[in-house]
Specification:
Blueprint lengths: L1 H17 L22 E6 L4 H17 L4 E6 L4 H14 L3 E5 L1 H10 L5 E6 L2 H5 L12 E5 L4 H11 L5 E7 L3 H16 L3 E7 L5 H9 L4 E4 L3 H5 L1 H11 L3 E3 L2 H7 L2 E4 L2 H17 L10 E2 L4 E4 L1 H7 L8 E2 L2
Parallel strand pairs: 1-2, 1-3, 3-4, 4-5, 5-11, 6-7, 6-8, 8-9, 9-10, 12-13
Antiparallel strand pairs: 10-12
Helix pairs in contact: 2-12, 3-4, 6-7, 8-10, 10-11
Amino acid sequence: MKKLLIVLLSVLCLFTIAGCSSGSSEEGGSSQPDESNDAFQIGVVQLVQHAALDAATQGFCDEVKKAFPDADIIVNNASGDPATCSTIAQGFVNDGVDLIMANATPALQAAVSATGDIPILGTSVTEYGVALGIDGFNGIPGGNVSGTSDLAPLDQQAQMILDILPDTKSVGIIFCSNEANSKYQVDVVTRFLEGKGINVVAASFTDSNDIALVTEDLCSQVDVIYIPTDNQAASCAETIANIVLEKKIPVFAGEEGICKLCGVATLTIDYYDLGVVTGQMAVKVLNGEADISNMAIEYFREPVKKYNPEVCELLGIEITEDFVPVD
């Protein structure tokens, strides 16, 4: 009888330990999902840590957890290294996760290279056709991929520069040469501004080691700087701020996080809400309510005009009443 009691207690302890294994992690790790209890296992690969991507990941996790409280969401950050994105994505594939959320273009590209079977939802990706090399992109990536785009109206962002600073003659654009969607934005904004008679100087950098030198050089050539929704630039925004604010060069940003540190103004989306929409798409896929191969990319439809009061005061720039302060 005593031996039987010991065996029963041992089994009970095993079940107790198993019941605590689900949850989110910054370092990785895995547990097999119990789909009968909606305990799906979801891998999140995020390119780099900065305000916009962090908000998108948080919105995604919050929305998924509302539908599936027992979901095991594993969040791994690649610290800006595309090769690390590939390692993380392959790890999720090896673990057999139910869905991968890829936050930023290099993360999406890595996930797509890692699997053609596990559903992949991207977020904070500007243009999926460019990111995935799809000619004649019609809004539906097909296969095992869909997601949300952080594309704000680029023509309106460019026009904002001319509306606020009508005497502008030259605009510099800072972007990371490793981000395909940044190059896409540079091309669109350049065409628009050159069509308005503005001289455009595009300055690329490869990583954080050369951002200061590139920014310094660009400040000596232009009246204004524009920074698109570029993840590497966002992660280096403090370095950029230290240079442009000292030289009193106005910066216009593609998103709010950069604008908070060094920008005059931005036409920005809400990245948390973008993550929420991505989470809603994930719930539909995991519930079997939607076939990911037929899901169109979703966009944030109501970008907001925001400005940085401190920077505007420093540079003596007046902003119209249709702008609201950055959060």
